[in-house]
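Quick one, T. Sequence first:
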Amino acid sequence: MVKQTKLGRLAVLSLAVFSTSTFAAHHEIKMLDNNAEGSMVFEPGYLKAEVGDTITFIPTDKGHWVESRAIPEGAEKFLSKEDEKFTLTLTHEGVYVYYCPPHRTMNMTGIIQVGKSVNLEAAQKEVDKIEKRTKENKGRLFEYFDQVK
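Structure tokens:
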């Protein structure tokens, strides 16, 4: 009987330690007119997250919203409303490339890497397309993409 009690306590303790390390995180990304990187920018522009984490996009300045451009296979595309907070739950591992539609030529873009970069090639193609059409802040998205591992 004593052995079962000790085993039971050990199992409960192990479960408690394991479950606290697996809680999902919450991240915020601001949509800004300006910051240290320049004009029309998401802050942060690159974010490393895990499956189950949530991201809230915050329109700190007016006239911004967010739309997905490249997402992992099986993940849902996303599109927020202008000047409204938008929360996204990350359901699939991979690279998410997004932008602010009215400021796309100003390279108001960002990248979220969730776990392994399983869709790296597709994300790279989208990054190349976006950078090719950019008129201002050239190279910004390439810098974010260079952080993807």
